[in-house]
Amino acid sequence: MNNNTNNNDANMTANIRSSNEQTLTTLGFHHIQKNIADCALSYLGKRYARELKPMTDVRLIQMRLDEAAEATALVRFGASVPIPSLEGMETIINLLGTGYLFSERDFSHLAQFLHSCTQLMKYMESKSGIAPIVSRYASSMMLMEPLRSEIERCIHNGRIQDQASKELVRIRKKMTVHEERMKRKLDSLVSKHRSIMQEQVVSQRNGKTVLPIKKEFRKQVKGIVLDESGSGQTVYIEPAELSGLQMELASLQAEESREEMKILGDLTSLAESYSREIALNTETVGVLDFLFAKAKYAAAIDGRSVHVNSNGKVKLQRARHPLMSPSMVPLDFSIGYNYSSLIITGPNTGGKTVALKTLGLLTLMVQSGLLVPVDERGEMAVYEQIAVDIGDGQSLEQALSTFSAHIRNMITILEQANPSTLVLIDEMASGTDPGEGVGLSIAMLEELHHRGATVVATTHFGEIKHFASATPGFENARMEFDTVSLQPLYRLRIGEAGESYAYSIALKLGMPEHIIDRSKSVVGEAHTKNKMQDVATEPQSQPDSERHTTLPVSMEHTDSIEQNAHTTVPTETISPNNPAPISDPAPLRAFRKGDRVYVAYLDQAGIVSEEEDNRGQIGVMIRGRKLKIHKKRLCLHISADELYPADYDLDIVLESKENRKKRKLMGRKHVEGLRIELPPEE
Questions:
Q1: Is the model's pLDDT at 113 over the cut of 50?
Q2: Which of 343-352, 355-364, 534-543 has the lowest mean pLDDT?
Q3: What is the pTM of this model?
Q4: How far is CA 451 from its chain centroid?
């Protein structure tokens, strides 16, 4: 087996195209890289962990998973693999063949590396029966016994040995004789000048032995003054009797240094002759270190191998997010069998986003050859792209709102989506008008499904849930919620749509009950209004004798209609080709503030904000805009009496919260500069 394959996977197969920094960061893959790097011992193992990227070759991924499972089995059985630390080897590898003269320290590191390689080869050979794939890496390593023996003969404990060469033996013997002669002479001089020495200690100055003599007695010692103390009370003198001996010793030391350089040069040349073998062993140790770092991490997270495929099928039992607490409720998940798009619903804090990130991160890990925390016999698909839209994506620097960031992200995803794409979308239809957001979301889901992508999305909107339940290739899922304890259960149940439980959660978190009750009534009113609007804009299925419709009629005729908008006419007399004559109706009551009306030429409903003026113009609030519309163009949907209680404050509907506060403040006292800004009339 080629030891370089693990390090060069990126050169052998295309890395997953969507593994840009944003995707990896969003799904937490960088944390996985760091955790594996922390388990590595060598600089190469740590480097390979930091450079780890997902792959797309199914065969290669399965091979990496198999070898990781084999290494993890060794670690789980308590094996202590003797991986060399590669201390000092980075410098040696970088400088081999450059003319650099390696030092005693460098050769000590190299000798230790060669010794550790021998131990590793013997260990892996003993494990070939239970770990045949992993052991083949070590079988390709080289012993380099001649190099190791020569280094150990010449260098020990970071110092060149006397027996490194005959010349070095001769020089060091002469140095020993001269050092002994100097010692005897020095002892004699110290005894002779003891009374005039500042202290009974021999010192060194500029590499020469000197005596510390009191300043006033310096002329009594024959020699050269090399230094004096800071106070000037002591002078350091090299006695004349020592000068000759010291010069001879310095000459021998220079010879020793030259001989040592020669020995180091010979060892460097020998090491360079083994450059390829040293590089191969270093690379192999780095690969094995990286492999066992993956194994240690897999053992720590209880990781297991899965079977990979290229047909989009995923089936996981008891899957866990590797960066979350072991107490996390495991996830059972499947997709790609009867459906390729899954819509997850459920309460906030219920685990929907965690489910998305768990699937995304485990997919990245598997495609990187890592074992994942799932039950046995798991199956995962291999994707060429993983596209995510998770988080609000707001950016002050780029002037992006939540919705703008979401749309930009989705445009990119739609451009790239294909049958080998996994798309993860959190909170579809959020950040904009719910009606338009739902429509956009359904259209995007249809397009992604048409392109064959695998899609997992979360939402709170019922329309999307209904779409998923009625559309082939889609399926609903929900995060379970205990309605008694009001606690999320974090279990995913596929095949059922969920609820948001907004009222229950808000009440549990401390929201006042009267606000919850008011919220329910507002929602109920909204449903009633919507139904009334639907009734006003759709044909009614009544018996012919009772079938009447409320104006307006089609927009082509609105400019010519001058009758009162409250008049009803028999619908059987109206047709596009033969519009019925309209008689003058009996006038009904005037529009009142708070009435809900329909504006035919705009095809929209609004609330009367100002009653009729002397020109017949009525103020109508439509989607936050205040319009002046003639009463003949309005049709009553539902009166204010039916919509609101008798004492209801219509300002809640017609004015902004800020203006209501200002008006209340003005009613109590005068505030300088306080103004109420009303929407412009159109």
A1: yes
A2: 534-543
A3: 0.69
A4: 27
- Nearest Cα residue to 446 out of 477, 478, 417: 417
Residue ranges in 140-274 assigned as alpha helix (H): 145-154, 166-192, 240-273
How far apart CA 184 and CA 232 sit, in angstroms, is: 29
CB atoms within 10 A of CB 22: 13
**Cβ pair 617, 629 in contact under 8 A:** yes
Phi (first) and psi of residue 426, to 5 degrees: -105, 135
The predicted-structure confidence for 400-439, as pLDDT tens digits, reads as follows 456 777 888 889 999 989 999 999 999 886 767 777 888 8
Per-residue confidence (pLDDT) for residue 32, from 0 to 100: 97
In Å, what is the CA distance from 515 to each residue of 334, 617, 643? 40, 37, 19
Q: For residue 611, give the 3-state DSSP assignment.
A: coil
Rounded Cα distance, 607 and 81, in Å: 78
C-alpha 666 chain-centroid distance: 52
CA-to-CA distance for 617 and 627, rounded, in angstroms?
Answer: 10
pLDDT in tens, 10-36: 443 445 554 478 889 999 999 999 999
C-alpha triplet 664, 667, 670: angle, nearest 5°: 110
CA atoms within 13 A on the CB side of 366: 31
Q: What's 481's DSSP letter? A: E
SS3 (DSSP) at 614: coil
